[in-house]
Amino acid sequence: MDYITITGLKVFAHHGVLEEEKKNGQDFYLNAKLFVDCHKAGVSDELRDALNYAEVCQFMTDEFKSDSYDLIEKACEELCRKLLLRYEQLEKVELKLDKPHAPIGLPFENVSVTMERAWHRAYLSFGSNMGDKKAYIEKGIQEIKEHPLIRNVKVSQLLETKPYGYVDQDVFLNGCLFLETLLLPEELLAFLHEVEQHADRKRVIVWGPRTLDMDIVFYDREVYDSEDLIIPHVDMQNREFVLKPLAELCPNYRHPILGQTVKQLLDQVQSIPQE
């Protein structure tokens, strides 16, 4: 991926744990890699097609000075987030923050923290089979669209499906959606649980009835496994009610473990004789 490098941008600011750091301030140095597609600007030679790095430097300076944080980790995190939210064409930021005048009391050259933050692409499945199903789904999707760290939400059509697993329950409305987010997998999961709770979701029966269910199916090309979350979704390849709306959004997306596209997985499921 293309990137623009900014090195040694000097900014006087008031970050630090000690009161004297907050009161007196000190010089910091910002070093950034801004990952952006430079092809269009490289062809046109027009500033309107480029990321204006002079403007970016001024933005970084103003934003870094606008607040006071105890930790350079916090200052770096906030600046990464602000850059990605301010400049839509930015895909990823690698930021190194130098604090050469840190009050350590020993001879040293520099103290720094380096972070890499990026927009991530995720696919979610959702469903409801209680109450006003469509209203629960629409409200949940609207909450997702309104999250400040989520953008470019695209939603499949809704389809009515028979229950899966525990079959003694009402039919479902199901669908999938695509989003870009700055949330990490566990953060996204926690947010989706909040959305479900706002729909009065109760986790009583596995695969049982629910007002709203939202699952992470894919997150970038990651294979992720924790106590609370597995990505790709562990059973998505067996669920037509996931694969069918997912194929509407990304038919050629390849499962990072199984190596097959969403359309191929859907074709396999649909080829199994129905009882």
Automatic annotation (TrEMBL):
Signal peptide (from-to): none
Keyword Nucleotidyltransferase: no
Pathway: Cofactor biosynthesis; tetrahydrofolate biosynthesis; 2-amino-4-hydroxy-6-hydroxymethyl-7,8-dihydropteridine diphosphate from 7,8-dihydroneopterin triphosphate: step 4/4; Cofactor biosynthesis; tetrahydrofolate biosynthesis; 2-amino-4-hydroxy-6-hydroxymethyl-7,8-dihydropteridine diphosphate from 7,8-dihydroneopterin triphosphate: step 3/4
EC number of the protein: 4.1.2.25, 2.7.6.3
Keyword entries, A-Z: ATP-binding, Folate biosynthesis, Kinase, Lyase, Nucleotide-binding, Transferase
Gene Ontology BP term (one): tetrahydrofolate biosynthetic process
Catalytic activity: 6-hydroxymethyl-7,8-dihydropterin + ATP = (7,8-dihydropterin-6-yl)methyl diphosphate + AMP + H(+); 7,8-dihydroneopterin = 6-hydroxymethyl-7,8-dihydropterin + glycolaldehyde
Protein name: Bifunctional folate synthesis protein
Gene name of the record: folK
